[in-house]
Known about the structure:
Layout lengths: L13 H6 L10 H5 L2 H7 L17 H4 L12 E4 L1 H7 L6 H4 L6 E2 L14 E2 L8 E4 L2 E2 L19 E7 L16 E6 L6 E10 L3 E10 L9 E11 L8 E13 L4 E14 L7 H7 L19 E18 L2 E19 L16 E2 L2 E2 L5 E2 L3 E2 L9 E21 L3 E22 L4 E2 L6 E23 L2 E20 L7 E21 L2 E12 L19 E13 L3 E13 L2 E8 L3 E8 L2 E16 L2 E14 L12 E11 L2 E10 L2 E5 L5 E5 L2 E12 L9 E8 L7 E7 L5 E5 L4 E10 L2
Amino acid sequence: MMSGVSAAHAAPTADVSRDTMQKKGRVTSGAARKNGAAVAAAAAPKGEQIETIGRTKVDSAAYQAPTKAPLTAFQPTSVISQHFIENNIPPSGSYDTMVALSPSVMTIGSNGPGLAENKVSVRGFSDGQYNVLFDGIPFADGNNFTHHTTGYYTAHDLGEISVDRGPGDASTMGYATFGGTIAVNGKAPTDRRAVEAYGSMGAWNTYTYGGEFNSGRMKKLNNASFVFDAGGVQSDGYQTYAGQQRYNFYGKWVQPINDHTTLTFMGMYNNLVQHAPPGVTTGEIAAYGSDYGLSNNPNSQNYFKYNVDTIQTDMAYIGLNSDIGGGWSIDNKAYTYAYYHHGHNENDVNGTTQAQYLNVAPVWKGHVVACGGTYGANKMTYNSGPGCEYGQAMRQDYRAWGDTFAVKRDFGLAKLKLGFWLEHQGDTRQQGNINWATGAFTNQAAPLNRLMTLDNFSAQPYVQLTFRPLPNLEISPGFKYALMVRQINAPVNQKTGTPLNYDQTYGAPMPSLNVHYMVNPNWSAYLQVARGFLAPDAAYFYTPDPAANKVSPENTMNYQIGTAWQSRRFTLSGDVYYINFSNFVTSANQNVPGYGPMTVYYNQGGVDYYGIEGEASYHLGAGFTLFANGSLNQSKTQGTGAPIANAPDSTAAGGLIYERNGLYASVIDKWIGARAGVISSAGKAMNGLDPFNQLDVSIGYTVHGKDHSVPPIKFQLSVTNLADSKKIFAYSGTTAEGVALWNTQPGRGFFGSISVPIGF
């Protein structure tokens, strides 16, 4: 099992292991066994195996289901298979595109699939309130624990993904076990040598291209194998002048050392340049269309060249999995990842009156406004005339170093697992106002309004016990202690502009109890009671005196019960949940001596989350599989009863899949219920958003050669938003004058792709 990944990934389901031949980790040829491949596969931990090329039984609900709950799951879990991803997701898509069909998940990209950073909501928990793992490694921005969907890997680099709607057990690690985990697995190398060229073209001048090389098992290196993939994406995007250029390198080497030990080496590098609109007003939508984003007008603050992000990221790890004797085994990953973001933006992008640079300097309160003059009560404008193209230049550079470690032993009637997660992340941030016309800072004496270094130290030791009082019953109590130390060294602190050197330590015990029962080989049930933890945001330090903030870590107590069934004909799962979210953080303006009114944070009450979720698929026969899933979700603030912003009251998905004789086709619809755009300081829901849906179609054909060990030629056509719905789906804040900004669904998109093997 990968470190930090739930037991949902520990083993194939009973039906899949009986009725299908899994791709990952199952040796299918006698020759491969003779060459020691079986030993290599057994030694490699799940997610780090060599992928065996073999025939699979496609005529089963378990294989075709877009989302399904594993029989080993001890909390509500939806797994999205690599097979589904490869046949349904446009090549430009990212992990947010792939998890969109899961129950209780809301996510949609306003610029097209994978063509801009996008946020994912799970049961109403927003990005920053749940984990994202890659091969079991937690990664996030340490300042607020959010993620960058276009930041690290591409769709072509990924295997299966799971959405765990719960805090996991004690061994589930990360900054935000608070609201669940999205666990992403990187692609594994195959056991036979292959070279593949791939490419696609589609709507909005979107192109992807790349090549993948698999070494196959190398006998002289003890049956080691590696995969290397290099690819790129470029697109104008659905929104006007919101283009993206991206290229990515990914590699994974699996090296068996002996019959008991396997090393895994993984590395990736990603380079991204994008122009990202912050949202548009309803007036702009009416005047310019639903696809309005940025402009090509150099006299406007939404000129695309004034609003650009250049982002470079990398991630690497060394993994060790070993049976050390006496029934003991260890699983360890030492890793690093980095995010380097250099951004330039204007101050009031897509604002109204102040959005244009004027040919004649305006008059304000009887005076001609110079560059950077004021407007309103106390706002600043940087748009007063030619040569005064004022905006902001920012940098955020961070690197994390960490380690996940687990030691395990199965005693028969009980299993023991001990381990820890350690990480240090150093984040340097700076920002200053500049004049685009000259490239100079606006205030030479004090050019920066933000200059700081943030350091986070995280430690999570844990112990997990699993008892088997009955052959089919597992009771798993666990305990973890989450510890986080935040430090800030700011010559110029954000918002205050004054120096600050401060640190604070947060900690919380996190007990858990999971009960799992196999009713029969096709049917399981589970019960979970577990605590989640979320350390306070770094924004709580952006005050003159952070000690004035009375903030304790936010916690959840999760109570969940569910069941799952899998057979060749059916998959079915359902659960009910209640989550008590305590120490909800809110803020208020207080008069701070020497500074005036400042934002001060404190804990106020909590939130109740509760609901019901289900998913099912039915194999009709003759290649057809029908599926549906849905959820009813509530999130209400204790005391006021107000809902949480951007938390849908329900979700649903359904469709039909056909696969036979190389032809694959699917028609899939996802529906999102009503939700509030924002909650006022008085606790009232505002800027309500109507339900919306998106209907997608995928058609593909795979041409197999006589030798099934050689990758096939594959053609695919993906149609996103077939009905061309262009509803407003997200509230995105306001302009400087307080006018609401919105995002709309991207219109209909066609994407055609091809992958071609290259022989030796």
